[in-house]
Amino acid sequence: MGIHESGEMYLETIHVLQKKNGAVRSVDISEYMGYSKPSVSRAVGLLKKGGYIVVDKDGYITLTPSGLETANKIYERHTVLSNMLTMLGVDAETAAEDACRLEHAISDQSFEAIKKHLENLKQ
């Protein structure tokens, strides 16, 4: 069984924060996502147990290869779906919110078809 939607959201957030700031700690995730510290702490524990992240002695979080692969997949879906919705005339904020929901529910087959279609439009 794969990772749950909330786990995917956390991995995507860690990935975004690492790209933006370099180092990531639970408090950064809490502030970025607007979640309580106990909620983030629980999620970090589950992601660590699942082998998606490692946490060093100072509390800094790093994605494992498996965590990075999942984070990249979700981030790509978010970006492509958000861009597609804005191309269709949806405002950027709504497009980002809707992409956030769609990125977890869409099948690999449907996502690849959307991606291919958008690439063909650019040619």
Number of helices: 6
Q: Which sequence of SSEs, written as H and E, runs from N to C?
A: HHHEEHHH
Specify the overall morphology. Answer: elongated
Mean pLDDT: 92
Report the β-strand fraction as a percent range.
under 5%
Q: Detail the poorly predicted runs.
A: none
- What's the β-strand tally? 2
Helix-residue proportion: over 70%
- Overall tally of domains: 2
What can be said about the biggest beta sheet? 2 strands, antiparallel
- SS class: mainly alpha
What's the Cα radius of gyration?
15 Å
Q: Give me the CATH fold name of the largest domain.
A: Arc Repressor Mutant, subunit A
So what's the CATH class of the largest domain?
Mainly Alpha
CATH structural architecture of the largest domain = Orthogonal Bundle
So, the CATH homologous superfamily of the largest domain?
A: Winged helix-like DNA-binding domain superfamily/Winged helix DNA-binding domain
Strand order of the largest sheet: 1-2
Structural key phrases:
123 residues; 2 domains; Arc Repressor Mutant, subunit A; mainly alpha; two-stranded antiparallel sheet; elongated; 6 helices; Diphtheria Toxin Repressor, domain 2
Question: Could you please describe the fold and organization of this structure?
Answer:
With 123 residues, the chain is mainly α. The protein folds into 2 domains: 5-64, Winged helix-like DNA-binding domain superfamily/Winged helix DNA-binding domain (Arc Repressor Mutant, subunit A, Orthogonal Bundle), CATH 1.10.10.10; 70-122, Diphtheria Toxin Repressor, domain 2 (Orthogonal Bundle). Helix content is 73%, strand content 5%. It is built from 6 helices and 2 strands. It has helices at 5-21, 26-33, 37-49, 65-87, 92-105, 108-122, and strands spanning 53-55, 61-63. It has a two-stranded antiparallel ribbon. Helix 1 packs across helix 4 (65-87), helix 2 crosses helix 3 and helix 4 crosses helix 6 (108-122). It is elongated. It starts with a helix and ends with a helix. The model has no long low-confidence stretch (mean pLDDT 92).
